Amino acid sequence: MNHTDPMHSSVCEKLDIEFPLLAFSHCRDVVVEVSKAGGMGVLGAANMTPETLAQELDWIDERIDGMPYGVDIIVPNSTAAQDESIQEADMLAMVPEGHKQFARSILATHDVAVGDLEERARDKAHVLGNSLRVAGASRLLEVAFRHPISLIVNALGTPPPVMLEMGKKHDVPVGALVGSKKHAVEQVNAGVDLLIVAGTEAGGHCGEVSTLVLVPEVCEAISSLREVPVLAAGGIVTGRQMAAVMAMGAEGVWAGSVWLTTHEAETSAVVKEKMIRARSNDTVRSRSRTGKQSRQLRSAWTDAWESEGPEPLPMPLQSLVAEPALDEIAIRAQSGHQGAQKLDTYWVGQGVGLMNSSESVRNVVYGFKEDFLTAYERLAAILSD
Questions:
Q1: Is residue 377 part of a domain?
Q2: How many domains is the chain built from?
Q3: Exposed e or buried b for every residue in 127-136, given b needs 16+ CB within 10 A?
Q4: Which of 2, 3, 69, 366 is close enough to 373 for a disulfide, judged by CB 3.0 to 4.6 Å?
Q5: pLDDT greater than 80 at residue 130
Q6: How far apart are CA 383 and CA 196, in angstroms?
Q7: Closest Cα partner for 315 from 50, 131, 179, 42?
């Protein structure tokens, strides 16, 4: 086996890539660099408008040298604002004053000036009101398919029929994230082309079952249904972990957290430094950011919600409480405000305990390849004895 040769993986064949490492990132620079290094970058577009997504994809197309890349959006199967008739003003009116007051109180306790949180909430409602509903997602899909994407992924729940239909029309594989065996079976029956099986170790939205258990469980459950490649996700930040999940039946991996401390990542210097210092148990799984369980870096903000906060609101209403405040916190933290730095947080998985330095994206990809090869050779040596 030569680490420069394309791997014999159905994911590599399906996506026309050299190495079955898919990188989920909100940062276009990361997407480009991973694809150029032999993997595939996938742009997270959940909080983008169609106009913003078009700009981001145009930028990628100009720099990626024709290498494959994908787009990830969120169309959850159930939210508090799923009804297309609900307007932005209606969404804002559904947020209890007590939740907004609690968010303000956290900022005040840490001497962070409140700023215009209401205006930020209105801006957030405009984006969420479009991107988290089928009509808005359809507009994002139209933009995505006007570009030479090689993969489209839905991050929460079964992809809506419009995504599956457009994928077939444009001959682009449709992927979906799952956190349980039940959901994996539902996705396969719905017609997805690729499953991203995410264990509870993952950053962002995740379930309760560990990657080590979930991957073989899903592989076994879908084996008699249809041939659908599985990408493992959740706490995977090294090539040896990649080798382990591929030994359990996965055809590759989907990694998100590992890019957050790279030179090119969208994360601020404050958050990068917190992640580099963090241990694997310095994350928390909580509904306090989006209304659904998501794993993030533990901070004074997450501690306050877990210890004394009101019951989180359903998606997307909780985001209208949390995101305006967290945006304000991030800005103040970058300017050196110590209280804001204690509050500052970001989504990240338990693999953060292995993310102990900041490197270029390409070095991380090459590190995955070398580490994978070392693990492969270690197993080969055991079998040859």
A1: no
A2: 2
A3: bbbbbbbeeb
A4: 3
A5: no
A6: 30
A7: 131
The 10s digit of each residue's pLDDT in 39-62 is 999 999 988 889 999 999 999 999
The domain containing residue 68 runs over which residues?
1-79+132-261
- Rounded to whole angstroms, how far apart are CA atoms 379 and 247? 10
Q: Closest Cα to residue 156, out of 181, 175, 182?
A: 175
pLDDT in tens, 220-268: 999 999 999 999 999 999 999 999 999 999 999 999 999 999 999 999 9
pTM over 0.70: yes
8-state DSSP, 349? -
| Cross-strand partners of 41 | 23, 69
DSSP class per residue in 102-145 = HHHHHHHHTT-----HHHHHHHHHHHHHHHTSHHHHHHHHHHHH
Q: Which CATH number do you get for residue 157?
A: 3.20.20.70
User: Which of 205, 239, 261 is the last residue in one of the domains?
Assistant: 261
Q: Are both 252 and 280 inside the same structural domain?
A: no
How distant, in Å, are the alpha carbons of 104, 113, 325 from that of 108?
A: 6, 7, 11
383 in any annotated domain? no
Look at residue 311 and tell me if it is in a domain: yes
191 dihedral zone (left: phi>0; alpha: psi -120 to 50; beta): left
- Give Cβ neighbours of residue 185 (< 8 Å, ≥ 6 apart): 221, 222, 225
DSSP single-letter state for residue 357: S
Say if residue 249 is in the same domain as residue 320.
Answer: no
CA dihedral for 330, 332, 336, 338, sign (positive or negative): negative
3-class DSSP assignment, residue 178: strand
> Does 156 lie in the same domain as 16?
yes
Asked if the structure places residue 165 within a domain, the reply is: yes
251 and 153, same structural domain?
yes
Q: In the block, which residue shows the tokens 């159905």? A: 10
Q: Are residues 41 and 137 in the same domain?
A: yes
The structure tokens 């990542």 sit at: 265
Are 295 and 283 a contacting pair, CB within 8 Å?
A: yes
Judgement on whether residues 3 and 138 belong to the same structural domain of the protein:
yes
Q: Residue 335 to residues 14, 112, 262, 298, 327: CA-CA distances in angstroms?
A: 45, 12, 21, 21, 13
Distance CA 15, CA 13 (A): 6
